[in-house]
Amino acid sequence: MTVEDLMQRTWSKRYVVDETMLNCNNTLFGGRVMAWMDKVGHELSLELTHQTTCTSSADKIRFRSPGYLGETIEVIAKPSELGPVKMIMELTAVADPDGENRRVILTGYYTFIQLDEKGRPHRINYFLD
Hints:
Elements: H1 3-6, E1 11-16, H2 30-49, E2 54-63, E3 72-82, E4 87-95, E5 103-115, E6 121-122
Antiparallel strand pairs: 1-3, 2-5, 3-4, 4-5, 5-6
């Protein structure tokens, strides 16, 4: 397997919006979705490296559409860049992923790195089984 093969990997997870996740507009709180995206991106980074990683940045966050009470939200991660010291994941949150009201609600790019024992970024070893 090569790094190019790893670029084809995706990871996803589904969440159901409940009352505790709503903001003052009775729509899904954007910070909750951003946290889900961070979690799913991190899970993909672990799958690709089999090593501990951490988030170093979240960029180009775009709120596209609100999420509503009772909807299923699917968060999908795919690699955008797999470099020697950082991994950039493209994250997309989709409401009603299997229904006729399917729509993208949030997109963004999250960067993950590995740290050495002194807390400095170090070279990533991808898991190429």
